[in-house]
Amino acid sequence: MPGKLLWGDIMELEAPLEESESQKKERQKSDRRKSRHHYDSDEKSETRENGVTDDLDAPKAKKSKMKEKLNGDTEEGFNRLSDEFSKSHKSRRKDLPNGDIDEYEKKSKRVSSLDTSTHKSSDNKLEETLTREQKEGAFSNFPISEETIKLLKGRGVTYLFPIQVKTFGPVYEGKDLIAQARTGTGKTFSFAIPLIERLQRNQETIKKSRSPKVLVLAPTGELANQVAKDFKDITRKLSVACFYGGTSYQSQINHIRNGIDILVGTPGRIKDHLQSGRLDLSKLRHVVLDEVDQMLDLGFAEQVEDIIHESYKTDSEDNPQTLLFSATCPQWVYKVAKKYMKSRYEQVDLVGKMTQKAATTVE
């Protein structure tokens, strides 16, 4: 009916009224969210060009990875170590009496300088020792020819070693000698250099088939070969031969026929040539027994005496000069000395000196 409101129409009118009252605040919130969302979208669209999406925050400067690592790992690690050192340092200071703190600080500051000065002092002492040996062993201190010096330098020898310094005078002057020195200290040159200088100074006219003036006996073929090489390396005027077992007899016979000034060999092979009559040792002026203790250990004592006894006469001043070199001096050495050496002989002992020095160092 026109002009009348039905119940259904009344409900439709009341619903919106109730909704507007109950949801008024909700709609306001919704409107504010929509407005904020619209505003944010505009802000993001403007800042997105710079690659930044943080709401309303200014763009942040990027840090390089290297800088991050430096500021993170290195500085953090350094600071941590510094803190630990500081704590340790403070802890030690707390444990000290008040009067010792200043002394502790002074010592701490001097640690590195003391350590450095210790190394420098050690190096200086070593340098002084080497310089002293070089001065004592300078070639100018000995009657060595320029030719021999040149050949020695060719072998890398620029000065005489201690054993060579001690023995040069007695050997060069023709005195009998017992010398103790360890293997590898330069024993061969200690008799080779002065003997070569003595022979070359008094060198006679070179004759074919001349008999040896120097006989060097060694315990093994290997050692004999090395000794012969050392002689050959420092002379161009003298003939050097080496006889030992396991090598050709014929080549050795050829050496004998051509003449020998210096003969190096083992007792067994030298005795073979003597017994066959091919070798004449009657002109010997110098006899060297090298590594005497080893020859005794190998059972060569009897053979050695069989070889040299023909060249010696009882209590004769004309007997050959006798030189004994050994790392140790067993009783047989003194027996040989008494039998073949002059009553007044020289003795040099570098083994005892080195042993005493080592013992002092250990203490």
Q: Number of helix segments?
A: 14
CATH topology of one domain: Rossmann fold
Write down the CATH class of one domain.
Answer: Alpha Beta
SSE order in H/E notation? HHHHHHEHEHEHEHEHHEHEH
Average pLDDT score:
77
Q: Based on helices, strands and strand pairing, what is the structural class?
A: alpha/beta
CATH structural architecture of one domain: 3-Layer(aba) Sandwich
- Ends apart, CA distance between termini: 136 Å
Shape: elongated
Q: Write out the CATH superfamily name of one domain.
A: P-loop containing nucleotide triphosphate hydrolases
Please compute the radius of gyration using only Cα atoms. 50 Å
Which ranges are low-confidence, i.e. pLDDT below 50, for 5 or more consecutive residues?
Answer: 4-8, 10-18, 42-59, 62-73, 354-363
Query: Which percent range describes the beta-strand content?
Result: 5-15%
Largest sheet: 7 strands, parallel
In total, the number of strands is 7
Helix content: 55-70%
Order the strands across the largest sheet as they lie in space.
3-4-2-5-6-1-7
